[in-house]
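I am writing to request your help with a piece of structural work I have in hand. A protein sequence and the structure tokens that stand for its backbone fold form the material at issue. Please examine both parts with care and let me know of anything in them that strikes you as inconsistent. The record follows directly beneath this note.
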Amino acid sequence: MQTTMLSVSPFFHLILLLFSLADLLNAAAAADYLKLPLLHKNPFSSPSQALSSDTHRLSLLFSALRRRPNPTLKSPLISGASTGSGQYFVDLRIGTPPQSLLLVADTGSDLVWVKCSACRNCSHHPPSSAFLPRHSSSFSPFHCFDPHCRLLPHAPPHLCNHTRLHSPCRFLYTYADGSTSSGFFSKETTTLKTLTGSETRLKDLSFGCGFRISGPSVSGAQFNGARGVMGLGRGPISFSTQLGRRFGNKFSYCLMDYTLSPPPTSYLMIGGGLRRLPVTNATKISYTPLLINPLSPTFYYIAVKSITVDGVKLPINPTLWAIDEQGNGGTVVDSGTTLTYLAEEAYKEVLKAMRQRVKLPAAAELTPGFDLCVNVSNESQRPSLPRVRFQLGNGAVFPPPARNYFLETEEGVMCLAIRAVEGGNGFSVIGNLMQQGFLLEFDKEASRLGFSRRGCGLP
């Protein structure tokens, strides 16, 4: 996760290094698409905590800047609202027999890693609190001389014992705040459900088995119940890439509105995606190119051309959205960040336009961390919030509803959930709140991002 909630959720994003990795999966055809539920943790009961988390995420992101129809895997995305997190979690079943662990679904990083325990008698471990390698017959750490291990920049040669035949590959990941995850870089069998409800077992998923987890980003209250991270980035060791060749090099998800009660189920699907929607005149599927930042190849960049508020184009210099030769600038789509963050000069124009067009009374006081808050105690007033539109590359228009960029921070008060990225690096982040209610397809084969307001209700 690079920067998952810049200020809204205590999410870290590892300073992940990209490696090249051979495809670990058999190319045999499977029976269906893989589908995983997404669960969301809502941070907005504590806006200051959420903002703090997002801010940390942004700093880590900035650190990182320095054939035929295929089956689809499916898994629910689970809201973290109940534990004060703005993340979406995936329930990953790993090992033989399978052990279930909640991982943060993160398009801003590559590594899949889980919290592990080396216990022998593990009866004192609550279910799903850690992965227990001794209880899995398919667990196998890579040898330190294995080519996979050599791709880990945090596994220097001196950690490999030249005199031992069975010397495991060790990894160490350090985060911007000093948090660390270390252990064995390993391979395992994962069990995933397909769209039809049947199960598929996939062997040799590369992942980090973290036996030592320390620091605020990856342990304690800030981690909010997650037991690791499912990296969905563009790098070769991400979950989506490892499964990609078998499932069409694409994945999709729809993040459902966290404010609904009971919260609806969201899904992460590996393979399939928007092409599964029935093609009718009412189906509006838009595509915009995915760009590559050579200095930050993990991230999913899109081209923002302009922003309008109530149909008025804002006076933002187009060069502000470009990726320069130093890797600065550009706009990242990140499921690990809660709010949306714009380059400072762009944010100033958005804030100015919002202040001019909001017809609602100002809140008695600003919620800490937000620059614009309004009184919406009268429910009928909410439709009068200004409408924001993002004009993207290839003529696509991303039209989020007001609830995606105004959030209720307390009863009767809504605040603009767009913030500035400070520091002069110029990049922007489209967070998961802005993405809610859209089915997003990350098509790495065609290097494009598809989105539609239809399809979120599909099983």
Q: What stands out?
A: The chain is about 10% helix and 30% strand.
